[in-house]
Specification:
heterodimer, A: 338 residues, alpha/beta, Rossmann fold, 2 domains, nine-stranded mixed sheet, five-stranded mixed sheet, 10 helices, B: 449 residues, MutS, DNA mismatch repair protein, Chain A, domain 3, six-stranded mixed sheet, four-stranded mixed sheet
Chain lengths: 338, 449
């Protein structure tokens, strides 16, 4: 058994996120569900889908069935609950409607298969997780959807596993550098407590702290605003972007002489939409990016096979990636065979 | 007429509903669907119940109230399920779960209320039998599945499933037939209870609504009205909760108003900014609150029941629909006149009719309107800036601008002569002096003055 299973147990929530379809996210979920000590802890699993569709919007393939073990709690849609292939006890039916009906929470009484399709937004997912806490669930596992990084947001889950692979890029170097970029973002350090305390309630706009420690608004709706001007900010030490952080803004900050070595704070890594190039240039010029909420990246898994059939060498991929991100990297399929 | 038909009346009734702390979405829907009460007995009976709930929240420890409110949050809309049950359909697991959940909720709520002497205030049908049907192991928790104890054979199959996961698909198939048999059996057993379950759901919504109304009365300082049997209504220290709240946010106080009206038409005149429109809005709102059984924003109120309530105000919504403001207003008032010819108890509140046309025709229209509606037996309250002959109408006047301050009280005057204070008020607002003095000069030069 791979060592990260023990580490998962230290957190109250885990999201599993794939960087692309066919990067082995479902394999990873299955691996985790098969091995977690279900007798020691109360566990609940759900999925955040694009309105919980049965057929994946991107690849038109059927969503996979997950095997749940006796004693596990799960959240899925009414429609998928009716199609379940296990015996389970109904615990709750939510008021919220998805395209597949309401979200149903139940407990598996036998081992068996279920199609997972849970709450349809990060907000309703959070609400569902609160409900799980009320049921004294120790660990919630979220099957994060493709292009739905928000389900991996630290505001939602404490820890995460990232699935990457040849489907993300069939070129080894590109795959490593693209994955490293995401890992760098996930691993961004926390800003200090005082900043967190000050910024957390601010949900929009761009703000800065001057040399006297006073907070000022930049009068811009977001970092996307074209007419952002950095004036009278010679003694600015900290910039806070409440919403999305984008390339253009980062470049402006980097090119502004008075903002050398500024600390740029964002809510969490899911708010960062900058290219690897701009990101690296910014760090090189002495700037720092910090976050207010952070989730623990437990492991990275790889699927060396791309859907088109191209196969990367598993060991080389694991080693190269592991070296680049300084974290263990696993090929779960290969590990399963051994 | 249902509450949802009048909730967006320009009188501001929605504010009261928005401020109502309902626990469940179902109670809100039920309230919006509830019809306006038009019988005095029914209204007073509803206030008797509300009084019990007011006493309940005043006397019972907060923790019990919070528990009750928390329970009511679990009230769901299961009308589809109940309909299926009453039509002899076989309920699926989710529907059976919903029935059990509701039955346990109803029993729990009844228990809390009974413990505090509230038994029978709102009748909740006993659903112990329903719970027994859906809780064969007597666990008393609101979860559900087709329990092993329903069928020995099912129990065997499930045990086999656990021992032979490889044969799971086969076993599940066999089990699903047995489960369907149990569902059929349960649905047959539950069928006679469909009506009681529906009653329980409505009772819980009513309790949610009564509790919310009681809390609102306490929070806003609302009062219980007395039923008036002579067709007149009387308010002492009436206030508008929304305006009061807005003023309070700016550190100002709402000046309550006393008003009596009814058998004779009532004409309100007074300076601009004298609160005439607020009085009409509040009167309309109070009448609706009364007939939907809410607390009344006044120190005391004696209110007559009406069959219909008309509130005519320069309505911007109609203007958005493409009608000119004059056309919209004429059509609204036309509806009042038509209704006045039917044998119904009406209340009409008309704000500055014909205000958007020229004063000569406007005055004629308003004078004629007053004549047409006088003697129709309706309660009419109308505001105007035009000098009209009051006839039989009672005239009230806003006290108006005194010593640089507005006095919003209404005083009875003998004729409908309107005060000429517009220029003084405009001046006090700091409006351009050239404009106002020129207007003053023109007035003095005109032959009328």
């Amino acid at each position: 058994m791979l060592p990260f299973i023990d580490e998962i147990m230290r957190y109250d929530s885990l999201s599993i996120v794939g960087l692309e379809k066919n990067t082995g996210k479902t394999e990873c979920l299955k691996y985790v569900l098969d091995r977690l000590p279900v007798r020691q802890k109360r566990m609940a699993v759900t999925s955040i889908g694009i309105d919980g569709e049965t057929v994946d919007q991107v690849t038109r393939t059927q969503k996979p069935e997950i095997v749940l073990r006796e004693g596990m709690f799960f959240g899925t849609s009414e429609m998928h609950y009716r199609q379940r292939r296990l015996v389970s006890e109904l615990i709750d039916v939510s008021d919220e409607n998805t395209s597949l009906g309401r979200v149903v929470t139940a407990k598996a009484l036998t081992t068996g298969k279920i199609l997972l399709s849970g709450p349809s937004s990060a907000t309703s997912l959070k609400r569902w997780m609160t409900e799980m806490r009320r049921l004294h669930i120790d660990l919630v596992i979220i099957d994060g959807a493709l292009s739905r990084m928000s389900s991996a947001s630290p505001a939602v889950s404490q820890s995460m596993i990232l699935a990457t692979g040849a489907a993300y890029s069939a070129n080894l170097s590109t795959l490593v550098s693209k994955t490293t970029h995401v890992v760098d973002l996930v691993n961004l350090e926390l800003t200090d407590e005082y900043n967190i305390h000050r910024f957390l309630p601010i949900e929009r706009g761009v703000w800065f702290i001057d040399g006297d420690g006073d907070l000022h608004s930049l009068e811009a709706m977001s970092s996307l605003s074209k007419d952002i001007r950095f004036e009278g900010m010679d003694d600015c030490k900290t910039l806070y972007v409440a919403g999305a952080l984008v390339d253009g803004f980062l470049e402006k900050v980097r090119k502004n002489k008075s903002l050398k070595q500024v600390e740029l704070v964002v809510r969490d890594f899911t708010k960062i939409f900058v290219s690897p190039q701009q990101f690296r240039l910014f760090l090189k010029s002495g700037g720092r990016i910090r976050v207010m909420q952070k989730s623990k990246l437990i492991a990275v898994t790889v699927n060396p096979t791309s859907p088109s059939g191209y196969v990367l060498d598993s060991d080389t991929l694991c080693n190269r990636l592991s070296e680049a991100i300084q974290l263990p990297v696993y090929d779960l399929l290969k590990n399963n065979e051994n | 007429m249902q509450l949802k038909n009048v909730i967006d009346s320009p009188c501001g009734l929605r504010f009261m509903l928005d401020e109502l702390e309902l626990q469940s979405g179902f109670a809100r829907r039920w309230l919006l669907d509830s019809p306006m009460m038009t019988s005095g007995e029914e209204i007073m009976a509803s206030y008797d119940i509300l009084r019990r709930f007011c006493d309940f929240i005043a006397q019972v420890e907060k923790i019990h109230i919070d528990t009750l409110l928390f329970k009511l949050q679990g009230l769901k809309d299961i009308r589809t399920t109940i309909r299926n049950l009453s039509q002899n359909a076989v309920l699926d697991d989710i529907e059976l779960f919903e029935v059990k959940h509701l039955a346990i909720l109803a029993t729990d709520v009844a228990k809390i209320l009974n413990q505090h002497g509230m038994d029978g205030v709102v009748e909740i049908p006993a659903l112990d039998k329903v719970i027994a049907i859906l809780d064969p192991d007597g666990m008393k928790i609101a979860t559900f599945y087709i329990y092993d104890s329903y069928c020995a054979q099912l129990k065997d199959l499930r045990n086999q499933m656990r021992q032979h996961p490889d044969q799971q698909d086969d076993l599940l198939l066999q089990a699903s037939d047995l489960e369907e048999g149990v569902r059929k059996d349960l649905s047959v057993q539950l069928h006679p209870w469909a009506n009681a379950i529906e009653q329980a759901q409505i009772a819980l919504a009513q309790i949610d609504v009564f509790l919310a109304k009681a809390m609102q009365m306490k929070q806003m300082g609302l009062s219980f009205p007395i039923l008036s049997s002579d067709g007149t209504s009387q308010y002492v220290s009436m206030f508008n909760p929304q305006v009061k709240e807005t003023l309070a946010a700016h550190g100002r106080e709402f000046q309550p108003v006393d008003i009596t009206f009814g058998m004779r038409p009532t004409l309100i005149t007074g300076a601009n900014m004298g609160g005439k429109t607020v009085v009409l809005k509040t009167l309309t709102m109070c009448q609706l609150l009364f007939q939907f059984g809410f607390g009344i924003p006044a120190a005391s109120a004696r209110i007559a029941v009406k069959d219909e309530v008309y509130f005519c105000i320069g309505d911007e919504q109609s203007v958005e629909k493409g009608l000119s403001s004059f056309a919209a207003e004429m059509k609204n008032i036309d509806a009042v006149i038509k209704a006045s010819r039917e044998n119904k108890k009406l209340l009409a509140l008309i704000d500055e009719p014909a205000r958007t046309t020229n004063p000569t025709e406007g005055t004629a229209l308003v004078s004629a309107l007053l004549k047409v509606l006088t003697g129709s037996g309706m309660s009419l309250v109308m505001t105007t800036h035009y000098d009209i002959e009051p006839g039989e109408a009672r005239c009230l006047r806003v006290k108006g601008f005194e010593n640089g301050e507005m006095d919003y009280q209404l005083v009875e005057v003998q004729d409908g002569e309107v005060p000429h204070e517009a220029l003084n008020i405009a001046q006090s607002l700091g409006i351009d002096n050239e404009w106002i003095s020129m207007a003053r000069n023109l007035l003095e030069a005109s032959p009328q003055s």
